[in-house]
């Protein structure tokens, strides 16, 4: 591990598993959280911002800025899909916590992302846990952003498996397919963690009981909000546990060696029945035709994960909080 912690910005739509990922980041000495940027996804952007501020207050980390992100997609689409049936109407398990005292900073998320990438060129990792609109806006705002940002670690896509919005699409990519396609071919150093990997990382009912019995502040808080998340998984997947999508993606920033990756060009289908589908071109065949796949930068796509190690890391750090 490097001596100085890795600077990260979490682009987030909290969300129960986002809450877990944020707490995990704050409990990870390998990481220094520069800020949270908010986006629609699990809930609308305004509520994402409120929840981000609330979580930082719970954590006693109101020194970390929250920059509010876009309320519309990159193509100005206003018909947004939110997953309140997964996370509760408030995004945090229908606990109806009192509103946070804090306020977001005056900068928009994309402006904040560009500013931090310019302040620390090559050093900032963005962990993107929602639709990629803010990152696409940062690319539009600063043509050098793709090269100045250190890494972009994305929770998104479903490679070689079905999606979770419909058989073709995973929720974050489906939330703004045009933005996702822009980010994948931007030339930035991108790692994509898809459902093919996150569906292997499961927090069981026994794990939840262990968290509840612990003295960890974050562990106890998460147990308070997780009921609806467990019942959603039981109804939708018939499993007695929950997928740790966001925490697993955050762990890719903490310890990338717990995953293996393949490299290729990723494009996103933006129209029709398979809108939001992520397609990985594995470079095994050279095609004769000039197409939308030619001369595009490659990204890394996670294909395996040491799931027990990821779950153990998540559990240890939350219990230790």
For this entry, give a set of tags.
321 residues; alpha/beta; Inosine-uridine Nucleoside N-ribohydrolase, Chain A; 9-stranded mixed sheet; two-stranded antiparallel sheet; 14 helices; 11 strands
Calculate Rg over CA atoms. Answer: 18 Å
What class would the helix/strand composition place it in?
alpha/beta
Shape type:
globular
The whole-number mean of residue pLDDT values reads 96
CATH architecture: Alpha-Beta Complex
The main pleated sheet reads as:
9 strands, mixed
Helix content: 25-40%
Tell me the distance between the termini: 21 Å
Q: Any idea of the CATH class?
A: Alpha Beta
The CATH superfamily is identified as Ribonucleoside hydrolase-like
Subcellular location: Cytoplasm
Catalytic activity: uridine + H2O = D-ribose + uracil; xanthosine + H2O = D-ribose + xanthine; inosine + H2O = hypoxanthine + D-ribose
Family: Belongs to the IUNH family.
Enzyme class: hydrolase
Topology, please?
Elements: E1 6-12, H1 16-26, E2 31-38, H2 45-58, E3 66-67, H3 84-87, H4 109-119, E4 124-128, H5 133-141, H6 145-148, E5 151-155, H7 171-175, H8 177-184, E6 190-193, H9 195-198, E7 202-204, H10 205-213, H11 217-225, H12 227-237, E8 241-243, H13 245-254, E9 259-268, E10 278-281, E11 299-305, H14 307-319
Parallel strand pairs: 1-2, 1-4, 2-3, 4-5, 5-6, 6-11
Antiparallel strand pairs: 7-8, 9-10, 9-11
């Amino acid at each position: 591990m490097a001596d100085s912690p890795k600077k990260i910005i979490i682009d987030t739509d909290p969300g129960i598993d986002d809450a877990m990922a944020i707490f995990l980041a704050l409990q990870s000495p390998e990481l220094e959280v520069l800020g949270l940027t908010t986006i629609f996804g699990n809930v609308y952007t305004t509520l994402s911002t409120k929840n981000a501020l609330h979580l930082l207050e719970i954590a006693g980390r109101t020194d970390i800025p929250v920059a509010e992100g876009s309320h519309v997609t990159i193509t100005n689409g206003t018909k947004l899909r939110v997953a309140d049936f997964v996370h509760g109407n408030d995004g945090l398990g229908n606990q109806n916590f009192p509103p946070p005292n804090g306020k977001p900073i005056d900068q928009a998320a994309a402006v904040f992302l560009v500013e931090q990438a310019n302040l620390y060129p090559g050093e900032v990792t963005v962990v993107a846990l929602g639709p990629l609109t803010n990152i696409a806006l940062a690319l539009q705002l600063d043509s050098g952003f793709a090269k100045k940002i250190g890494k972009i670690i994305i929770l998104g896509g479903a490679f070689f498996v079905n999606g979770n919005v419909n058989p073709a699409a995973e929720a974050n990519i489906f939330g703004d397919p045009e933005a996702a396609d822009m980010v994948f071919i931007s030339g930035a150093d991108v790692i994509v963690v898809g459902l093919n990997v996150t569906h292997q990382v499961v927090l069981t009912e026994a794990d939840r009981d262990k968290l509840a019995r612990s003295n960890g502040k974050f562990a106890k808080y998460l147990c308070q909000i997780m009921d609806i998340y467990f019942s959603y998984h039981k109804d939708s997947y018939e499993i007695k546990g929950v997928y740790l999508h966001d925490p697993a993606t955050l762990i890719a920033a903490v310890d990338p060696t717990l995953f293996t990756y393949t490299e290729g060009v990723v494009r996103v289908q933006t129209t029709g029945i398979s809108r939001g589908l992520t397609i990985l071109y594995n470079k095994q065949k050279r095609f004769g035709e000039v197409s939308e796949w030619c001369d595009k930068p490659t990204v890394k796509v996670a294909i395996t994960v040491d799931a027990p190690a990821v779950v153990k890391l998540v559990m240890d750090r939350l219990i230790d909080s």
